[in-house]
Write a structure and sequence with these properties.
five-stranded antiparallel sheet, Beta-Lactamase, 5 domains
């Protein structure tokens, strides 16, 4: 039997029992009071019927005859009649000898009759030792009370009636309650049966059985509920099937990815990984494993901390075992989860290493023969006639250019491979910049340009390698002068929020927006013919970028074609 059925049936049972009890008690006492009133009126009428006889005998003081009359009448009407004088003396009684009875002047009904013209009382009689109902009336002659007639009845007769009445009421109430409970039983059963069916169907639904249906014949709200449940089941079945297909498709897609793929929860546990990642770390069953025990790389830990704090996609190069990977991470804020995808760039890194080694070795091998060529050219220039000197000048110019390229490649190779540890010390940028600008006074004067230096009055100090900062400023200022035909070249240095801002600004030819992202690549030049004419190597800005990164700084460029270029470098202050 269902719990809801027991609750409904128990509730109705309590209500019915309570109402039946109240009904029995209320009915019993109501009928009892009504019966007492009826009986009182009856005794009152008896008093009135004997009034004239009692009045005549009391007036003549025929107390003996009165007593005989009262006893005879009492036997006939089955009631006790008593006549009492105003002073309480009993002169006649239907059941006892008046001479042996005590004074009745203090009886409640006698006092009420004398004082109020009518008296009644339901109490225990000490004379006959039974409960009695008393009704008393005064008897007047010429407006004066000469006696009080009292008619009483034994309550045992009333109690028999009360018992019958109570039994009848209880029997009727029990029968009515049983009939009502039987109706409640069938009502509760008919109400809870469809609910039980709904509960069983819901349990099946929760376990994944979407074929469960509810059929309800009655056309009521429960029928509507059953129809809604069936409709919901059909929609859930369709949605679940669609989600299952999408999940299988996504699982197949993730499993088929050549790139490694993992998902990390907010506690740092791996909750999803594909086969490619398992092969990458040479481990299986990674679910529930701490990510740091698998990705033993400080860059990976730093990447995950950045993702949690910055809530944006971040890409970093990390190393796992002997392989190099470009790790792209995204943070899912709703679930506090992190997705990492690993792109294998090991071959690219090897190729880049081969390229760097080639450049480094080639630069080293070329330096000696080029130095020899330059020496022989300089010797020939002193001995050859003026007619052939232009040819030697061309050879010398191109030799110098190749030597500059090799020198820049060597510097760039050292910066990339970090062969030479930077010698960090406290550098006064203001003094360093003033000394550097002296190198460019002649070249600026020749081109008719203005060279301005704007700096903060505060002492501008940074922790840096002075030689590399000097290289950085020389490259930027030299470029600005080379590519500016008229106007101004500015060097501005200021301090802002514990940062040093270095700005090199010119009014030169400018850079097309599409090319601005590539200017820091090796050998990339905006105007190749102009760069070749000016003796540029295409490596200066690449060197500048590596020096900025070496000092934990940032560099960006702002430029507009025909209006000039502005390089902004941000370095941490000392």
């Amino acid at each position: 039997m269902s719990k809801i059925f027991l609750k409904i049936f128990s509730g109705f049972l309590i209500v019915i029992v309570a109402l039946s009890t109240l009904l029995i008690v209320f009915t019993y006492y109501t009928v009892r009071e009504q019966y007492l009133d009826t009986l009182t009126n009856h005794l009152k009428n008896l008093n009135i019927s004997i009034k004239s006889t009692v009045e005549a005998k009391v007036e003549n003081k025929n107390y003996r005859e009165l007593d005989e009359y009262i006893k005879k009448l009492g036997r006939e009407i089955h009631a006790r009649i008593t006549v009492i004088l105003p002073d309480g003396l009993v002169v006649a009684d239907a059941e006892r000898d008046p001479a042996k009875m005590e004074n009745h002047g203090t009886r409640t009904e006698i006092a009420q009759a004398i004082n109020n013209g009518f008296g009644t009382s339901l109490r225990y009689s000490h004379t006959i030792q039974e409960d009695m109902l008393y009704v008393a009336f005064p008897i007047y002659i010429d407006g004066k009370i000469i006696a009080v007639s009292r008619v009483s009845m034994h309550t045992k007769d009333i109690d028999i009636l009360y018992t019958r009445l109570r039994n009848s009421i209880i029997t009727s109430s029990v029968i009515l309650s049983l009939i009502t409970l039987l109706g409640v039983f069938f009502f509760s059963l008919s109400f809870t049966k469809p609910i039980k069916s709904l509960a069983e169907a819901s349990k099946k639904l929760s376990s994944g059985d979407f074929d469960s249906k509810i059929f309800h014949k009655r056309n009521d709200e429960l029928r509507e509920l059953a129809d809604s449940f069936n409709e919901m089941t059909a929609k859930l079945s369709s949605s679940f099937k669609e989600i299952k297909e999408q999940k299988e498709e996504l699982s197949s897609l993730i499993s088929g990815l050549q790139e490694g793929f993992i998902v990390i929860d907010k506690h740092g546990k791996i909750i999803l990984s594909n086969k490619s990642f398992n092969n990458l770390v040479s481990k299986e069953n990674l679910i529930g494993t701490d990510y740091w025990s698998v990705l033993q790389d400080s860059k990976a830990s730093k990447l995950i901390k950045q993702l949690k704090s910055q809530y944006r996609s971040i890409t970093k190069e990390i190393q796992i075992a002997d392989g190099f990977y470009m790790c792209s991470g995204s943070y899912i804020e709703a679930k506090e989860e992190i997705i990492l995808i690993f792109y294998n760039i090991t071959e690219m890194k090897k190729l880049e290493l081969v390229k760097k080694d080639f450049i480094s070795n080639a630069s080293h091998e070329l330096r000696t023969p080029l130095t020899s060529i330059k020496g022989y050219v300089e010797t020939l220039q002193m001995e050859i006639d003026e007619k052939h000197k232009p040819y030697l000048n061309v050879i010398e110019k191109n030799t110098d250019r190749i030597i500059r390229i090799i020198e820049d490649l060597t510097i760039l190779s050292e910066l990339e491979e970090k062969k030479l540890e930077p010698e960090f010390q406290e550098v006064n940028l203001t003094e360093l910049s003033k000394n550097i600008l002296k190198y460019f006074e002649q070249s600026v004067s020749v081109k008719g340009l203005k060279l301005q230096f704007n700096y903060s009055e505060n002492q501008l100090l940074i922790k840096a390698d002075p030689f590399k900062i000097e290289q950085l400023l020389i490259n930027l200022i030299d470029n600005a002068i080379k590519y500016t035909n008229e106007g101004t070249v500015e060097l501005n240095i200021n301090e802002s929020d514990d940062k040093i801002i270095i700005e090199v600004k010119d009014t030169g030819i400018g850079i097309i927006k599409d090319q601005q992202e590539r200017i820091f690549e090796r050998f990339y030049t905006v105007d190749k013919s102009r760069s070749k004419k000016l003796g540029g190597t295409g490596l200066g800005l690449s060197i500048v970028k590596h020096i900025v990164q070496l000092h934990n700084g940032e560099i960006k460029v702002e430029s507009e074609l025909g209006k000039g270029t502005r390089f902004i470098i941000t370095l941490p202050a000392a």
